[in-house]
Amino acid sequence: MAETKREIERKYESDDSGLPDLTGVPGVAAVLDKGVAELDATYYDTADARLSAASLTLRRRTGGSDEGWHLKFPVAPGVRDEIRAPLSDTLPRALAGLIRSHVRDAEVAPVVRLRSARDVRDLVDAEGRLLAEVSVDAVRADRLTADAGSAQWTEIEVELADGGDPDFLDKVDKRLRKAGVRPSRSASKLARALAETEPKRKKKGRPKARQDGKPASGASASATPVTAGDHVLAYLRAQRDAIVQLDPAVRRDLPDSVHRMRVATRRTRSAFRSYAKVLDRAATDPIGEELKWLAGELGVDRDQEVLTDRLTAALDALPRPLVTGPVRNRLRTWARARSGGSRRRLIAVLDGKRYLALLDTLDRLVDEPPLLTAAAGAPQKVLAKAVRKDFGKVDALVEEALAQPPGADRDLALHDARKKAKRTRYSAETAAPALGGPAVDLVRLMKSLQGLLGDHQDSVMTREALRDLAAQAHAAGESAFTYGVLYAREERRAELAEAALPEAWETIGAAMEV
């Protein structure tokens, strides 16, 4: 069983490798000597360093209180999430899944062995509570691949206690700097080990790595976009990277991870359609279908959860006298019955061949793009034309919706306008680095329109659910009064959204004419 620990730490180095007196740090009542621990860690990666390229660290360590397998994900500078699994001879399945989007079918093998003598001190307050752990690590690194090299160094590591105030590290930092200790030049022991044990003949001219760790082909991913094709590919590369990076977060069920991954698939599909003059649709359409499949799998339970949360919040907002019958029990039963997936199903999708093949296809797309003639054109011309075309479709759909009386046809037209507004927003996002302010403004305007139309569509879907719930309640001999009250409130929300649309659209139109 894997567990997660949030690591907040800072690393330092000193010419004399000593630890200065820390009893003067504000809040520290005592420095407790906890002795020396002998740590032996083997770090793993693919032959082409995919984990390192993604700033991930995988190791198997013996010694110390937390021996076992550790997989570290960067969160912020000096902050990492460490996923721990018990010690075993082979990589635990839980950790193997978390790196699968990066390594795909490549083998992970030992690359570096680090042996450390860790001299540990605990910084505690007047009540004996742990504030931070400070260690002086004498490290020996041995590269385990061909042309093996070795290195030795000593470093100081300060790790905040669980639940501690990060500001406390600033106080320790001030004391260390005053004593001549300086921040480490390397982000981690592994990074330093790889740098200092690398064969000299390989230190120059190494190819840059893609986000998934494979060597980049063609133009560098970090090159400044010049042509229209460059801008579209930069946007697509960012979405590919987002899907790969969010995969472990989805597996860990982190908040909003499923939604963000779905958005990345939508942005990619939208770019394919908006920039059909830049990328050959004969190549992108099949990929778009696979992305649509993935978005559907990600949304099996997501949409239902959102709808259930909306209904629950609406019910909570009702005065108690308006709640008649077993409404909450009925809502829970209804939600469970409509739940079409599970965590196990989603993980199976992410472990499946179809999904991994899609990731490989996205890699090939951004590395060997099916560019058309317009891709070589000036972005100010090609991208602007595509954005204007998308906005024109939104314009037509909004005007069509406003011309219709309230009802199902208008609801459908407004829903179509919402989808086109989202597509226009994404095409403007792609063009923003080239077009600047006008595209940025359009992103903002389309986001506001999308929000307004989204509120309307949410009301439509919620009213459909309430009709379903009321029918079930009636069939069971329960009162349907509360569902009617909620329906009326949702209907009013839709009316308000529709009433606000003409003025909002007039404002958007005026802004676009400027």
Question: Can you walk me through this structure?
Answer:
- With 514 residues, this protein is an alpha+beta fold.
- The chain is built from 16 helices and nine strands.
- The protein has an eight-stranded antiparallel β-barrel with strand order 1-5-4-3-2-6-7-8.
- Helix 7 (257-274) packs across helix 14, helix 8 (281-298) runs antiparallel to helix 12 (353-367) and helix 13 (379-402) packs antiparallel against helix 14.
- It is globular.
- Mean pLDDT is 91; it is low at 203-222.
Strands, helices and their partners?
Blueprint: E1 3-13, E2 30-45, H1 50-53, E3 57-62, E4 68-76, E5 79-85, H2 93-98, H3 100-103, E6 109-124, E7 130-143, E8 150-160, H4 167-178, E9 182-183, H5 189-197, H6 228-251, H7 257-274, H8 281-298, H9 302-316, H10 327-338, H11 343-351, H12 353-367, H13 379-402, H14 408-435, H15 437-475, H16 481-513
Antiparallel strand pairs: 1-5, 1-8, 1-9, 2-3, 2-6, 3-4, 4-5, 6-7, 7-8
Helix pairs in contact: 6-7, 6-12, 6-14, 7-8, 7-14, 8-12, 9-10, 13-14, 14-15, 15-16
Can you tag this structure with a few keywords?
single chain; alpha+beta; eight-stranded antiparallel beta barrel; 16 helices; 53% helix; 18% strand
Total count of helical runs of at least 4 residues: 16
Order of helices and strands: EEHEEEHHEEEHEHHHHHHHHHHHH
Distance between the termini: 59 Å
Rounded to an integer in angstroms, the radius of gyration calculated over CA atoms is 28 Å
Number-wise, the strands total 9
Q: What about the largest sheet?
A: 8 strands, antiparallel, barrel
Strand content: 15-25%
* Average pLDDT taken over every residue: 91
**Lateral strand order in the biggest sheet:** 1-5-4-3-2-6-7-8
Q: Which shape, going by the Cα principal axes? A: globular
Residue ranges: pLDDT <50 for 5 or more in a row? Answer: 203-222
The share of residues in helices is 40-55%
Instruction: Specify the structural class.
Output: alpha+beta
